[in-house]
Amino acid sequence: QEQFVESGGGSVQPGGSLRLSCVASGFDSRWYSVGWFRQAPGKELEAVACVSDGDDEPDYALSVKGRFFVSRDNSKNTIYLQMNSLKSDDTGRYYCGAGCSPVVALYRGQGTQVTVPS
Q1: Are 58 and 66 in contact (CB under 8 A)?
Q2: What is the pLDDT of residues 28-39, one digit of tens each?
Q3: How many Cβ atoms from other residues are within 10 Å of residue 59's Cβ?
Q4: Burial class of 34 by CB neighbour count within 10 A (0 to 12, 13 to 18, 19+)
Q5: Going by C-beta distance under 8 Å and a sequence separation of 6 or more, which residues neighbour residue 38?
Q6: Through-space distance between the first and last CA atoms of the chain, rounded to whole angstroms
């Protein structure tokens, strides 16, 4: 079954860093733009970052720009999200999917939880 598997979440103090990983299972992710999304308690799923399948610069939500960095290693079929200077507002469940829109992203996994206490 084609699916992404997310990992790397955890609990971290404000100002800390985490690196999330998103491994494609059952398909080659190099042909897709891949987005990172998050859902905070009581809120809708929102787009955080997106890396293209080509040479375009990644896109970031304004709330994370300059703090989060998305990258990919096609040899490992893996997409990463480096998260720095974490804030309590970054708390949520993080998912990745094929495509930049959380509404239509394909192969979305079970997600990984990130908790930053206030």
Answers
A1: no
A2: 999 999 999 999
A3: 16
A4: buried
A5: 45, 46, 48, 90, 92, 93, 94, 95, 114
A6: 38
Query: DSSP character for 66?
Result: T
The residue type at 19: R
Other beta carbons within 10 Å of 55 = 5
Q: How many whole angstroms separate alpha carbon 62 and alpha carbon 29? A: 26
pLDDT category of residue 25 using cuts at 50, 70 and 90: very high
CA dist 64 and 77 (Å) reads 24
Which residue in 67, 66, 63, 78 sits closest to 32, CA to CA?
Answer: 78
**Does residue 77 sit in helix, strand or coil?**
coil
Give the C-alpha separation, 57 to 78, whole Å.
Answer: 18
Q: Do 34 and 59 touch, CB atoms closer than 8 A? A: no
pLDDT tens, residue by residue, 48-100: 999 999 989 999 999 999 999 999 999 999 999 999 999 999 999 999 999 99
